[in-house]
Structure formats: structure tokens, C-alpha cells
Amino acid sequence: xxxxTTVSRAFSVIRQSRKVGRIRFPLLGYQVxxxxxxxxxxxxxxxxxxxxxxxxxxxxxxTQRLMSIGIEFFAHHVLGRDVSLDELRADYRAVFxxxxxxxxxxxxVDGRVPADxxxxxxxLQEWVAVGTIxxxxxxxxxxxxxxxxDLARVLRKTGAEVHVITHDALxxxxxxxxxxxxxxxxxVKQAQEEGVVFHEHRGIQRLILRGERVVGVExxxxxxxxxxxxxxxxxxxxxxxxxxxxEQVIPAIGQVVLAAGMERILEGRPxxxxxxxxxxxxxxxxxxxxxxxxxxRGTVSGAVGDGRRxxxxxxxxLRGVEVSxxxxxxxxxxxxxxxxxxxxxxxEEPLLSVEERSGDAEVAGGxxxxxxxxxxxRCFSCGECLACDNCWTLCPDQSVLKTKELASDGxxxxxxxDYCKGCGLCARECPSGYIVxxxxxxxxxxxx
Length: 448
Ligand SMILES: Cc1cc2nc3c(=O)[nH]c(=O)nc-3n(C[C@H](O)[C@H](O)[C@H](O)COP(=O)(O)OP(=O)(O)OC[C@H]3O[C@@H](n4cnc5c(N)ncnc54)[C@H](O)[C@@H]3O)c2cc1C
What we know:
Blueprint lengths: L10 E5 L15 E5 L8 H4 L8 H12 L4 E3 L10 H7 L2 E4 L5 E2 L15 H11 L7 E5 L3 H12 L3 E5 L19 H9 L3 E3 L2 E9 L2 E14 L5 E5 L5 E3 L3 E4 L3 E2 L6 H4 L19 E3 L11 H20 L49 H9 L12 H5 L5 E3 L10 E3 L9 H5 L10 H7 L2
Parallel strand pairs: 2-3, 4-15, 6-7, 6-13, 7-8
Antiparallel strand pairs: 1-2, 1-4, 5-14, 9-10, 10-11, 10-12, 16-17
The site of flavin-adenine dinucleotide has 36 residues, from helix 1, helix 4, helix 5 and helix 8.
């Protein structure tokens, strides 16, 4: 067996501890083994994210932190080649699949592809691994996600003229998220600062080829029209064609799951069909999440959240109990009384100027300690009792009583409804939206 070195989220398999004392067990007390095709942990963050966006020492610290709680990591283990799902099912009591989306989506224009076609993801992976990038004077990247923007910035560093062609709108105020490019708006802005040219609401109508090689593309304005079934159709506008002379076209239009070894679970679907907790339908003991799950928004925080929920679900499965989680309802902004909060501007992360952005230097750094503390003080603690005494002090009927011990709702106040006239002053003056006025008839109905 390889010795544990570091950790990744590719495939985690969980078995009840039979080796007490060998390692410190992860938080819920199970022994967890992670298997990954790659030599090191970190998944896409290690293989495709440019280091100027995520310094590798930060990633190493994170993966080491996970390892230190006792997770075993087996590198060079490819599911479907070195180990089968049946073997994992036999050896472990539960299996979590998190293979991400490792393959760029196929792309062509009227069935034609240039001879030197590479997906944006593949080019980024090569650049991150060995530092090679196509040596071109100009390139058009098709797509509006993080891969498209990251590759555009990497190519731009070589001095190439770089165009990003996207059906979506540039992210800006007034553009709804569903109509905007999927890339992080801040990254789009930085790419623009660096000289990347964005062509929003555009598609490629025709490849202009000399032999098999691209010498240009014909772009056309695209419009999104709603279909009667609620879906969106993207249609070209005739007469809006323009030609862009470029040496290379690179599609970065999303990624798909590599199915090898997981065909039985995928059942012909491109992604895993799972519930909120990651249970794979019809496969008890098998869980999935991250980018490979249907409906994933393709973000790190989404993948981490999937992993956390699946861990709770696996714990429930192994103990034979139903898993549930209390989700607090979102508190609308208008339930807060902002007069009680001092205005404080948002902390700005340190940002390198365009001239300083070279090599692997981190372009947008993290906040420093005092900024993090200041940010935490900007928190409204929505829906939490701040023990500010407003309700107790301001109630004209003295129907709010202050308690020494915590009341049943966790606050220090109880309401004496025999004296409450329902004026609502307490709710209006509650800074955090903790006190809510209920319709008396509905309230009475509930407790009949
Ligand atoms: C260029 C780029 C930029 C991005 N920028 C951001 C960003 O700024 N912010 C953000 O939130 N998200 C970003 N993302 C998305 C983010 O990387 C993913 O959402 C996240 O990594 C998904 O995590 P995951 O664990 O599901 O999959 P991954 O991180 O892809 O990890 C999957 C792991 O499974 C392993 N694997 C796959 N198949 C097998 C197999 N058969 N056998 C063994 N191992 C296997 C892989 O080797 C890999 O290590 C970006 C993605 C890309 C490509």
C-alpha cells in the first residue's frame, strides 16, 4: 500500500475503523481513504488553475491540513483501470465519487474543426504542468466561463492578441446572473485591464480556413429568445456578421465527466443524478458530488458543500438513520434595521497593477488579519438575537421580559402576550430581523 502523503477529493471511501490507533480519525470518526488518478491532491485547482490565481503553497497548506486529521491518500489510482467500483464496494462500507469534469466539451462549426484544435482546458492543464502554450500572434477563445478567461489571460501574457467570444453578456450592473458570463466578474475585469478583448452576445458562424488551418472566424450577433416550454433558444441575427482574423480558435465551452469505470452509476447520463445529500439513485452506499453532479454550478464552494453534506449522509447511512439538517430561512434585507449598524466600506483585497502582473505573482491577494476582523464586524448577524435590549427597553407595554437564563429560543427575552398590544415596535427596532410579527389569527390557528 502506498503511504499516505496528502489528500484530494476524487474518490473517498469510508469504512468503520478497524485500525484504531494507527491514525487520528477524521471528524466523524471513520477511516477515510482517498484515491486519485493524479500524483498529488487538489484536483482541478492543482491541474488547471493558474498559480497567479491560486498560489501552490496555499493549496499545499490546505491539503496538508486535511491530511493532518488522518485522511489516507492513494495517488495514481484510476477508477476503471486500477480499481473497479465493485472492488471499492466490497472493501469499503460507502463510496463517494467526485471525479469532476475532466474533459473539454466537443466543439465544431457546421461539423468542421480546424486541424490544430485543442480545448481550453487541455491547454491550461499543459501550461500549468509544463509551461507550454501555443505560440500564436492572435487567438479567439470561445466561451464565457473561468477556463475561457484564465486561458485568455495566460495567452495574453505571451503578447498575443486575444479575443473571447461569448453568447452571454459581460457581467455588469443590471445584467441578471443567468444572462451573464459564468466567469467570476472580477476576473473578467482584470482580463480586460490586461488587454483581452471580449465580444459579448456573439457566436462563431463560420470558420475561415486556409487548408486545415484557421485564419479567421466570422462572428455573428446572437440573441437569446425564450421558447414556449421555458427553455432558451440562441439565434443568430442575419446581417450582423463581422470577420476576425486570428491564427487559432480555442473552444472553452465547458467540461464533461469522463465516464470510465462509472458507467453503471451514470446510466447513460452525462452527470450523476443525486439528491441534496449526494445519494446516487438506486445505488445504496454510493454517493456523488462536486462538478460531476447534475446541476452543479461548477464552483469550489459548491463542491466543498456537496462533500460536507455527503459526509453527513454517509454517517447517517452507516448508522442507519435518516439524515436531516436544519436550514435557517434567509432573512430579507428589509427586515433588518440598518440604522443600528455603522456604515463601513467593504475591505479591498490587494491587487497588483497590470505592470506588476508577471510570472506566478498572485494578482489578487487575500485580506490581511485586521481586514478580516473588520469584515466580520460588518456582519449583520441576520436572524440572530444580538441581546441589544431594544425590544426590552422600547416596548411601551413592558410585555418584553428579560431573563437571566437563556429562554427556550436561545435569547434572553420572553414575550408576555397578555400585555402585548401588537404595536410591532419591537420588530421594527430589532436590528437583525430576529423578531417577526405574525398574523394573530394564523398564530392562533397554529396552536389550536
Ligand atoms: C480553469 C478553471 C478555473 C476555475 N476557476 C474557479 C474559480 O475561480 N472559482 C471557483 O469556485 N471554481 C473555479 N473553477 C471550478 C473548480 O475548479 C471546480 O468547481 C472544482 O475543482 C470541482 O471540484 P471537484 O472535487 O468536483 O472536481 P475536481 O477538482 O476536478 O477533482 C476531481 C478529481 O478526480 C480525479 N479523477 C477523475 N476521474 C478519475 C478516475 N477515473 N480515477 C481516479 N481519479 C479520477 C481527478 O484526477 C481530480 O483530481 C475553475 C475551473 C477551471 C477548469
